[in-house]
Amino acid sequence: MTEEHLRVIIVVYTSALLPLVIVPLLHWRKKIPSWSLRVYIVSFLFCALGWELWFTFGLLDGDPVNVRRATTLNEWIPEHINWAMNSLADAGSIALVALWLAWSLTGKNSDIFRHWHWPAFAIMMAYCLGQNIIVEMYLYHDQLAIGKRLSWAPLAPTGPWYNPTLFEFRGRTITLQGQVPWLLMTPILYWLTILLANSQQKMPQNPESGNSDETLKPSLARETV
């Protein structure tokens, strides 16, 4: 096993499993609004069905992940859990962190979760695309390199048939198909967040639950998104 393979394994499992523990714990302790857990779950489903399952198994004119990467990675991150690990990381380490950054960098204003706020959306888009570019260049570059075909997916509609190289950096390529999923998922994520946060407002207040609208701002102020 090379150092690069070890780094990929550590990053994949850490980014997937830490949020799986932390998010439910914060929700149980009422440190985050109840809709945060819903956003986490729904984001997992959107990412899994939107592209991770398709990319992992090469469902439509693509190469499965076990063909696109080294044998060591196939042994440590088997194909049948690869899509789940990536989707968990997408939902926790990307989606929820993007929301937290948007909230933090707009003055911890919880109103950004009640209606569309362009500066908040810009922050989310910058983070989601920025991390995706870093992942494509340094983490999954061997799986996403030129000549490795990614399947068509609902949130990667250009498929392998139109996948130009956007730019190169130190011999690493950034392709259109690798960036399209988060280009489309980010506005979906923000729209879902607003929808779920507003639906929480409309729920009858339960003083014992701590999840009424009155607890929304204190929860955000105390911790994170």
Key words describing this protein structure:
225 residues; mainly alpha; two-stranded antiparallel sheet; 2 strands; globular
Blueprint of the fold:
Layout lengths: L2 H26 L5 H24 L7 H4 L2 H6 L2 H27 L12 H22 L1 H4 L20 E5 L2 E4 H27 L13 H7 L3
Antiparallel strand pairs: 1-2
Helix pairs in contact: 1-5, 2-5, 2-8, 5-6, 6-8
What does the model show?
The chain has 225 residues and is mainly α. The chain has one domain (3-222). Helices cover 65% and strands 4% of the residues. The protein has nine helices and two strands. The chain has a two-stranded antiparallel ribbon with strand order 1-2. Strand 1 and strand 2 form a beta hairpin. Helix 5 packs antiparallel against helix 6. It is globular, with a radius of gyration of 18 Å. Residues 207-225 have low confidence and may be disordered.
